[in-house]
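Researcher: I'm preparing a figure for a lab meeting and need a structural model of a single chain. I don't have an experimental structure, so a prediction will have to do for now. The sequence is pasted below. Please return the structure as tokens so I can convert it later.
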Amino acid sequence: MKTKRLIALLCVMAMFVCLLVGCTSEPSPTDATPTPESTPTPESTPVQETPTPTPAEPTPDVKPEFTYNYDVIDEEAKTAILRTIILPAGVRKSDVTELVLPSEVDGYTVVGIGWDVFGKIHSGGLSDDNWLEKVTFPGTVEFFENSVFREAHGCKEIIFENEANIKYIDNAAFRETVWEEQRAAETGFSVVNGIITGIYDSGDVVIPDGITAISGRPFQTTGYAAYVTSVTIPNSVTYIKELFYDVDENAIVKCQAGSYAEQWCIDNSVKYEIITVD
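Model: Understood. Here is the structure written out token by token.
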């Protein structure tokens, strides 16, 4: 009996001590290390793409505005011959490699192209020095004076908008151009609408049938004049100018009796021989 009381007393005393020292039971901490909260990844700032610039529209080549000196041929018909090409301010002569000549100037139709238009004589003019490479003539042009391309050695392309309209070509109009020599490369003759402008052949030269005219001094500076022995001229030729001016004095013309060529030889004291064509 005494023992039970003693045990009960000890239990009461133990509870009292626990209350004094805070022996309240707590759950044991777990051994696992708590997973730290993940730091949210900030949203990346989008990269600003540099827009590809739209290429600017190409600036078209601005053609210089030339002015022209000319002579009136017929006031009533409003026709003129072009004399000089005047460059606008700021345009260098070496800039002009191509030209398209006008069909009309100040209300006058351009029917003729004058001497040395592209050369060095005219004050204020183009004065080409092998820069000019290409020229286009309007379809209104009917005739060319002599040495139109004097010293324009670099011109390798000449375009006639209406070659059939060309009626007359004077001495060596295209002589100093690359164009004329190339035009004669296959046949030995440079021909524009049936008119021979240059002969690049020697020995016994035979003019093709169908040629209507031989412009002045066709052998001049071609390198063949001294080696010409004869020139046979068909009946189709109805105009000749200074054909033998540059050839050897012993050269002769061969032609048919009663032809224009025969009469030309008589009028110009040129030796000739009558031939018969079968």
